Amino acid sequence: MAEKKKTFEEAMSRLDEIVGLLERGDAPLEESLKLFEEGTKLMKQCSGLLDKAEQKVRQLTGGADGMPSEAPFTEGA
């Protein structure tokens, strides 16, 4: 059965938890590898969700004439 996809916030929270566990360094090697693999999957999921959010922002940007237009996504704008 397929695992339910986490929301961005759930995935980031779990990723933060995994980083903490790995930083402590007290997990056995096999468990550390599983945590690393899970973290990598969560990172890819979060990146994909952020990419989709960026595209949505691009789609929702209106031009000077009120018509939708694609505008570059700039940080801090």
DSSP E strands, number? 0
Which structural class should the secondary elements be placed in?
mainly alpha
> Could you give the distance between the termini?
42 Å
**Pattern of helices and strands:** HH
The coarse overall form would be elongated
Count every helix, treating DSSP H or I runs of 4 or more residues as helices. 2
* Sheet with the most strands, sense and barrel status: none
- Outline the low-pLDDT stretches: none
Kindly provide the radius of gyration, computed on alpha-carbon positions and rounded to a whole number of angstroms: 18 Å
Helical content stands at 55-70%
Range of strand content: under 5%
The average pLDDT score comes to 85
Characterise this structure:
- With 77 residues, the chain is mainly α.
- Helix content is 64%, strand content 0%.
- The protein has two helices and no strands.
- Helix 1 (8-24) runs antiparallel to helix 2.
- The N and C termini lie far apart (42 Å).
Compose a concise summary of this entry.
The protein is mostly helical. Helices cover 64% and strands 0% of the residues.
What are the SSEs and their pairings?
Elements: H1 8-24, H2 29-60
Provide keyphrases for this structure.
77 residues, mainly alpha
